[in-house]
């Protein structure tokens, strides 16, 4: 029989900060099409009202967001 397919590549996540002198993020328009800064309270409210859709609970993006948030986000 043929060998099994190789495993998928590992997923990577990253954190970012605003550059000195910048007051808002600037998405590249390809990989990231929208970005904005929110407080923890704003994130909770936006997740509750559906204006921000959070990534799935098993995604790296969710892990990074909840690490910044300080714990699980229940919405």
User: What Rg do the Cα atoms give?
Assistant: 16 Å
Number of extended strands: 0
Helix amount, in percent?
25-40%
Largest beta-sheet details = none
Question: Can you give a write-up of this model?
Answer:
Helices cover 27% and strands 0% of the residues. It has helices at residues 40-49, 60-69. The protein is extended and about 55 Å long. The N and C termini lie far apart (48 Å). The mean pLDDT is 91.
Concise description?
This protein has 75 residues and is mostly helical. The protein contains two helices and no strands.
Strand-helix topology:
Layout: H1 40-49, H2 60-69
Q: What labels describe this entry?
A:
75 residues, mainly alpha
């Amino acid at each position: 029989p043929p060998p099994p397919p190789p495993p998928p590549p590992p997923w990577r996540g990253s954190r970012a900060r605003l550059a000195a002198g910048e007051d808002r993020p600037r998405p590249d328009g390809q990989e990231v099409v929208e970005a904005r800064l929110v407080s923890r309270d704003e994130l909770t409210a936006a997740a509750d009202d559906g204006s921000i859709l959070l990534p799935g609970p098993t995604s790296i993006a969710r892990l990074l967001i909840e690490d910044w948030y300080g714990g699980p986000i229940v919405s």
